[in-house]
Design brief:
The chain has ten helices and seven strands. It has about 230 residues and is an alpha+beta fold.
Length: about 230
């Protein structure tokens, strides 16, 4: 591709592309006095920048997850939504998980199964992960665990009132996630499918993680078909 096209892809000035070629970070060659940039070299550089750079802000992380789900992310400007849709098309969710860690914190507990309904009844609780996989046909059925998003103050309150014991990820049967940007989850009962997939992929259980990857790829295929 031309230097102009490469600059547009990267969102930089043409002089920056030529500097990257001189530094050997992009492969290019001169044809008829014009520089051409190797497309695969550019793709590799974009991937390394995306995956090795700073994590997304909470607003962008949730924007990506909503767009992966086929839902609007109205809190983002049009240009950011366009870039994130491109990210959805070009990268697997599993590869992007380090970029999405700012979506929230997670706390693991052990609790009596009879407490699950009381946790679900907490104001602001939004089901996710293993508690939504059946709704999304994620090829996974888990009835002896509970997972969802809950505001931080509610997590502390539930842990105290319901005698939830802190646990490690492998032994937890209650997974409570604290969203860093709560506005998109307000008034929802279930997290967007993209967030469900990310939460499943991060599971310590291999079968659960595999189901999350399958769901994520299905969502990406849906977005590709819808354009």
């Amino acid at each position: 591709m031309s230097v102009r096209e490469a600059a547009a892809r990267l969102g930089v000035h043409r002089s920056r592309v030529r500097a990257l070629i001189r530094a050997g970070r992009l492969h290019g060659r001169k044809v008829g006095g014009r520089w051409l940039v190797d497309r695969s070299s550019l793709d590799q550089w974009v991937r390394s920048r995306l995956l090795d750079g700073r994590p997304f802000s909470p607003r962008r992380a949730w924007g990506y997850l909503f767009l992966l789900s086929g839902e609007p992310a109205a809190w983002l400007d049009r240009a950011t939504r366009s870039r994130l849709r491109k990210t959805v098309r070009e990268f697997r969710l599993n590869d992007l998980l380090p970029k999405l860690r700012n979506r929230g914190d997670v706390q693991y507990f052990r609790g009596a199964p009879e407490m699950f309904e009381k946790i679900r009844a907490q104001p602001g609780f939004v089901r996710s992960g293993v508690s939504t996989s059946e709704d999304l046909d994620a090829n996974l059925l888990v009835r002896d665990a509970l997972e969802g998003y809950l505001p931080r103050a509610r997590v502390r309150e539930a842990a105290y009132r319901l005698a939830l014991e802190p646990s490690d990820a492998a032994n937890a049967n209650v997974i409570l996630r604290i969203p860093s940007f709560a506005a998109p989850l307000r008034d929802r009962v279930m997290a967007p499918a993209g967030a469900v997939a990310a939460d499943l992929i991060e599971s310590a259980d291999a079968r659960t993680s595999r189901a999350g990857n399958m769901l994520a790829e299905r969502l990406r295929a849906d977005r590709a078909r819808s354009g």
